[in-house]
Fold:
Amino acid sequence: MALLELCDIRVEGLSVPRLQSINLTLHSGQLVGVIGANGAGKSSLLKTIAGLLTPATGHVAIDQQSMQQMSARQKAEVMAYLPQREQPQWDVSVIELIKIGLLQHRLSRSEQQLRIDQVVTECDLVDLSARALSTLSGGEQQRALLARALVGQPKLLLCDEPTSALDINHQLHTMQLLQQRSGQGQLVLCCLHDLPLAARFCDQLVLLNEGKLIDVGVPAKVLSDDNLAQVFGIKAQWFCEDSGVAWLPQPL
Structure:
């Protein structure tokens, strides 16, 4: 059964549509990467699913329920959204930030603490948990915000470039963590610019260009020569090993 369905989605922009004629069905237990050039509509897609952008046509359904008919609490119980950039409005500690991710959840105090301890460890925040957000680097803040999104254990996790501010070690660790969460039954949908990272970790890729859905499928299918040329204006030589994926991109 599909967890997420987008039917004939169109989102208007100032001069051109942000998204047009998007039809997409995704299932639980997958890590799905959203890829495309700058301005392709990746962030707009996630914001539309999260309810931050209202489509001019079409509808979004989560677990067979229309997004438009869901209350704020219902959305918070099934979905979490990690934006590309977020400046917290007040300076709280890492622990206090993570607790915000549990506000809409009815959990005992002991269950809350178990979940907090889990994400603090998973996101490598043990030594930073008492620190104020303003004292952290950009990458450390990104990990704290990811922990806030993870702590509610949502069925649907939306991450907009979750590795953009991270060093290489934490990039790999974060992708492994998202892969682990999808393996536990969550649907993880994340925008990525690093194509080798997407090819290595994602079960499926969603390729966008100028607001249109170009291709959906396994990485080997979506990252074809034709798609790379059409969307990114490049050609690439790929090197695949058991330990990972590398590439040598070149302009056309």
